Amino acid sequence: MVGNRRQETESHNLLKHLVAAVLRSEGHEVSIEHNFSSGFNNGKIADIFDKTTGLVYEVQTTKQTKVEMDKVRQYTKYCEVNDVIFIYPVMFRMQNLLNSALLRDIKKKLGAKS
């Protein structure tokens, strides 16, 4: 986790890796916590950047139209970004996933502690 670590929950981080894994399984080149740096300044950090399609995937806890519009405006300044897709963990039953054997398997593959 990079950026705003205090607000990123375990489900947020897991969902990022899950989306990235699905995209990779489809043959996409994907970067997690992709930093769009601009010169000497640190740029905007995307949860997931699909280099194949130019799509940024952002995991949001709740729908916040103004925040999302700001993120779209910031990301689309970079020529390699075509669009931004927002994903809400609420769409998935994350609590069930967090308590599952799947999570333990994913953590094991990522080399994380159980």
Question: What spatial form do the alpha-carbon principal axes imply?
Answer: globular
What's the order of the H and E elements? Answer: HEEEHEHH
Question: Going across the major beta sheet, what is the strand order?
Answer: 1-2-3-4
The CATH architecture category equals: Alpha-Beta Complex
Question: How many strands, which pairing sense, and closed or not: the largest β-sheet?
Answer: 4 strands, mixed
Helix content: 25-40%
Q: Structural class of the helix and strand makeup? A: alpha+beta
Overall pLDDT metric? 78
- DSSP strand content: 25-35%
**Number of helical regions:** 4
Low confidence ranges: none
Radius of gyration: 14 Å
CATH topology: tt1808, chain A
